[in-house]
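Blinded run. Sample ID left blank on purpose so nobody reads anything into the name before looking at the predicted structure. Input follows.
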Amino acid sequence: MYVILVYDVAVERVAKVLKVGRKYLTWVQNSVLEGELTWAQLEKLLGELRHVMDEEEDSVLIYMLRTERWLERRELGRRKGGPEWLV
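Blinded prediction complete.
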């Protein structure tokens, strides 16, 4: 399935959430990651996120699509993230 992950977390946890997310998905913009995952990978990702976030204060949204084929994305402005930004 194709997954889009969007997060809004406290400043002190942003780097931790991003680090977990990048293990499974591609960073595309501040607080946004996306990519293809299996159900098992999604469950592992959710478990790791629960360990680093504060569910009383932080928010994570996950959009799941059956396939990337039905996704249309338009970009305006400067491109951020993506594989070319990885060091």
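Unblinding after everyone has recorded impressions. The mean pLDDT is 86.
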